[in-house]
Amino acid sequence: MVTESPLVAHLRAQARRVAVPGPGGDMVWHAWGGPTAQDPVPLVLLHGGSGSWTHWVRNIDALVAAGRSVWAVDLPGFGDSATPPAGSDADALVAPLARAMGQLFGDVACDLVGFSFGGLTAGLLLAVHPQLARQLVLVGAPAMGVVPARQFELRAWRHLPAAEQEVAHRFNLAALMLADPALIDAEGGLALALHLENMHRDRMPRRRLAHTDALARALPHVPCPVHAIYGRGDALYRSWITALQDAYARAAPDFRGLALIEDAGHWVQFERPQAFHQALLAALRAGRVPAP
């Protein structure tokens, strides 16, 4: 077990931990703020693949300070949540996530923010249950169908001796998640510690939909405002990042725009939290106003 960082411990202490029961077991949420928030509409955060709610640790305090009621889930098969009853990819999470959100929020439509695999999951969810969100923000989301071939390669690690696994994780963080490798060891090695903890709790290892155009095919069925935020150096896209604006405009009926964060890679909300916070709040404000 990796020693918990002071930031994670602070957020955990401030949170309400809510376990929502389901057919496969509990889905665990952490919530900050509440009905007395300036904007009580739930701001729901879906983490990326091999992640947990801790993908958002450098963003939660700022969002609560901005007056939001923040709900960060451990998606089924990740973190503290039970594995879904069937399936091993984003489509297997649609039914349990819709059920949990209905139990938590009733008829209230949330603002939904999905990072990477969580963005793909959010798109698939809203294509079937559009009433769940008043707007959608996709952060570093895959499966938009604009990349002709995979843009990165990761090192396998599960077969390695424990002493060698950290070397592989460091390589993978630099290859996929962060544009600046120096951040791996910054703040007492926060990025590495979060990554190690999350990877060892990932029970959904055979995911393939991220390498398809599944999100692009789902978005035509999502009627709410859709926004996109990416790091300009996102390893999923690299030189193809400029094709995303048109891809989203073709796919989403109410696409509101793409924000590219400079000097950032795939885990943009961790790498450039202040710029990401500004882009996210701007998108959320814009999505509350009818399209011209």
What would you call the structural class? alpha/beta
Low-confidence stretches: none
Largest sheet: 8 strands, mixed
Tell me which CATH architecture applies here.
Answer: 3-Layer(aba) Sandwich
CATH superfamily: Alpha/Beta hydrolase fold, catalytic domain
Query: Major sheet: order of its strands?
Result: 1-2-4-3-5-6-7-8
Distance between the termini: 51 Å
Q: What is the CATH topology descriptor?
A: Rossmann fold
Number of strand segments = 8
Quaternary state of the chains: single chain
In what range is the share of β-strand residues?
15-25%
Overall CATH class = Alpha Beta
What are the main properties of this structure?
AB_hydrolase_sf, Rossmann fold, 292 residues, globular, Pimeloyl-ACP methyl ester carboxylesterase
Description:
It comes from Oryzisolibacter propanilivorax. One of its GO terms (cellular component) is membrane. One of its GO terms (molecular function) is catalytic activity. Residues 43-278 form the AB hydrolase-1 domain. This is Pimeloyl-ACP methyl ester carboxylesterase. The longest helix is centred in the middle third of the chain and has 16 residues, at 162-177. The chain is 35% helix and 17% strand. It has helices at 6-14, 60-65, 94-105, 117-128, 162-177, 186-199, 214-218, 244-251, 268-271, 273-287, and strands at residues 16-20, 27-32, 39-46, 68-73, 110-115, 133-139, 226-231, 255-261. α3 crosses α4 (117-128) and α5 (162-177) crosses α6. The chain is built from ten helices and eight strands. The chain is globular. The protein has one domain: Rossmann fold. The termini are far apart. It is α/β, with parallel strands linked by helices. α8 links the parallel β7 and β8 (255-261). Strands 1-2-4-3-5-6-7-8 form an eight-stranded mixed sheet, with helices on both faces.
